[in-house]
Amino acid sequence: MGHREDLLEGAKRCLLEKGFVRTTARDIVKASGTNLASIGYHYGSKDALLAQAYVALVEDVPLAGGAGTGAAPGSLERFREVWSNVVDSLREPGSIWRLSVEILAMGDQLPEVRDQLSRAQREAGRGLVSLLMGVPEEEVSDGTADTLGRFYVTLMTGLISQWTFDPKTAPDAEALTEGLRQVMAAANSAPQDPDSAEG
Asked: What whole-number distance in Å separates Cα of residue 43 and Cα of residue 52?
């Protein structure tokens, strides 16, 4: 591997061991076997490197489970399976999702990191739509990523926050699926608004 890849791998290890705030540029250099100048050359700054490392860690989490999901795309069963895998990843010691809360809390202090992660959110939403609806990511339109995808990212962010704050009372996949079932039932039984029905 070259210095760029070594730095990324070293930054990923540091994030898992120390978190975002406590990781220094020297920690990354030590973990990657590179030098301080290579951080600026390849990534611009330590924070930009850590943001990329965080995105790479998130992308490595197997939300589909070991063998993927066998449930029908868009079904409640598929929803339950995917969120069950997310909850399982939250239960793991040293879960990378805990980093999300740390980064959210200091977002206004790190505008460069916030901007980079904001751009990554659309792709995260696109990935969740692909996983839950069973379509290739490249077929998920920007409009769908910005609506349904953002809905799923919002659900993910809330779930991460609850599991970080109090794992004993945080919802599992069964509770989330039952909540969605109740929302769907209420929406299906609500009277139709005549104005919205007009094309």
From this structure: 9
Contact 96, 16 (CB under 8 A): yes
Q: How far apart are CA 74 and CA 193, in angstroms?
A: 25
Long-range contacts of 166-174 (CB under 8 A, 24+ apart): 167/90, 167/91, 170/90, 172/84, 172/87, 173/80, 173/81, 173/83, 173/84, 173/86, 173/87, 174/80
For 72-83, the pLDDT digits (tens) are 999 999 999 999
Q: Rg of the chain over CA atoms, in angstroms? A: 19
Express as a percent the part of the chain with pLDDT over 70. Answer: 92
Per the CB < 8 A criterion, the answer to whether 158 and 101 are in contact is no
pTM of the model: 0.79
Which residues lie closer than 8 Å to 7 by C-beta, 6 or more apart? 28, 32, 34, 38, 39, 42, 43, 49
Of the chain, the percentage scoring pLDDT greater than 90 comes to 59
Is-contact 142 122, C-beta < 8 A?
yes
How far apart, in whole angstroms, are the C-alpha atoms of residue 58 and residue 111?
20
DSSP 25-81: HHHHHHHHT--HHHHHHHHSSHHHHHHHHHHHHHHTS-TT-TT---SPTTSHHHHHH
- Whether residue 185 is predicted with pLDDT greater than 90 in this model: the reply is yes
**Helix (H) / strand (E) containing 79:** helix 76-91
Instruction: Locate 114 and state its tokens.
Output: 């916030």
